[in-house]
Amino acid sequence: MNATLRKLGMPALLVAGTATAMTAADMVKDPLPDLGAQAAGPAVAPPGAIASAEGLSGAFRAATRAALPAVVHVRVASAARAVSSQQVPPEFRGTPFEDMFRRQGGQAPRAGSGSGFIISADGYIITNNHVVEGMDRVMVVLADKREFEARVVGRDPNTDVAVLKVEARGLPVARLGDADVLEIGDWVLALGYPLDLGQTTTAGIVSAKGRSLGIMGRNGAEAPLEHFIQTDAAINPGNSGGPLVDLQGRVIGVNSAIASPTGFYSGYGFAVPVNLARRVAEDLMRDGRVHRPMIGVEIRDVSPADAEVFGLPSPDGAVVSAEPRGPAAAAGLKLGDVIVAVEGKAVKNAGDLMETVMERRPGDRVTLDVVRYGDRRRVAVRLEEFSNPRAARSRAEPAAEDVAAPAETTGRLGFRAEAVTPEIARELGMERAAGVVISEVDPASPAAGVLGRGMVVRRFNGRQVGTVQELRAASEAVRAGQVVSLEVRLPDGRETIVNFRARS
Hints:
Layout: H1 2-21, H2 24-29, H3 35-40, H4 47-67, E1 71-78, H5 97-105, E2 110-118, E3 124-127, H6 129-132, E4 137-141, E5 147-156, E6 161-165, E7 187-192, E8 200-211, E9 228-231, E10 243-245, E11 251-259, E12 268-273, H7 274-287, E13 293-294, E14 299-301, H8 304-310, E15 318-320, H9 326-330, E16 338-342, E17 345-346, H10 350-358, E18 365-372, E19 375-382, E20 384-385, E21 408-409, E22 415-419, H11 422-428, E23 436-441, E24 456-460, E25 463-464, H12 468-476, E26 483-489, E27 495-501
Antiparallel strand pairs: 1-2, 1-4, 2-3, 3-6, 4-5, 5-6, 7-8, 7-10, 8-9, 9-12, 10-11, 11-12, 13-20, 14-15, 15-16, 16-17, 16-18, 18-19, 21-22, 22-23, 23-24, 24-25, 24-26, 26-27
């Protein structure tokens, strides 16, 4: 720091030396320009541009002043944890090495920090689940520097939302906005306590909506709901749980994640929409857990190939990708149906559908617009509370030795398949050895990413497939660039439809 100051000071010393060498006469001959004349000179930028910039600066200042008092610093810590007797390898139990293993295998103390914002004057605070998960102590520091020990009211790994409570009254409260009215290009501000720097505000725009990153499932979420607001406002470690606000200072998102190769800001940050966060927080405050409604379908985004197969005007909607159950089955939904609207509100992708349904409650009735192979229809579904029927299912793929028999090639489609043997049937939990199983997928083919080893082909372009010969005959009819549709059984027992375009 001192070296930097010295470098910056050098030009000033040179100017001072020059000034002392000038005579009074020189100064009279070359007087300094009149300061009044400088002020009256031509503007650097047109007055309208300056007024617009100053207006935007004013909006940033006003939004920050409105929101910042309700933004808090969340400090967390966990104690060291010893390894339990069940975690000690059997060969070490009851020996002198058991204590050594406990000491070396235990978890060291941890500490960290994040942000949050106050949603009620009596001390309820929203933050991220990942900020407080596994922590023994949570401290909250208010904008006025007061500190409180906080209680974790509830957490939801599926949405990365948590609610804290501090014992206080008359606290400043954040105003909650409406994320649904946001448009790409809108100005937003990210507030919080990044990198332990203290209160910080950064500005950017909404650069995308409805982003799914696939990060929730890594943290034990049973049914991750990702529908992030993407922004280029700088978000760094420590911003997690803080608010993303609009130019009115209203919270429209909860800052949660960044896309970065280094772990620090690289241009893209992500926030949970406040409509979703508020719905989750209400349940956590009331019951300590989330009552998540469900239709009873597993879904995926619509691809261009899906749109062609299912008769859609555009690749929008959510494909029913497994056999419906519960309310969906009762309402008559089928595998391959595409849900394109809920209560008349268009569904662009799977995240859209999940977030829209999450705004309801178990027991509510909703009307779905569904496209079934080009035929649009409307069905009513009574929502049930979410349960996870897949929790106990095995997802293991068949081992390499189970598919090592000579395989048949399906040519331009980019995968190889073989008959299901008794060994493969046992591995896949099938009642009998029948059918055709995918044994290899060319990573450079159109099938890569949609097909995988261990999938059993049931139908190919509507034709039932029971043998390798039947699969070969069906695939030989495929033209270059044609979309193909396969009904397959997954290694965990579910059935789904996979669509992709053959090689040109």
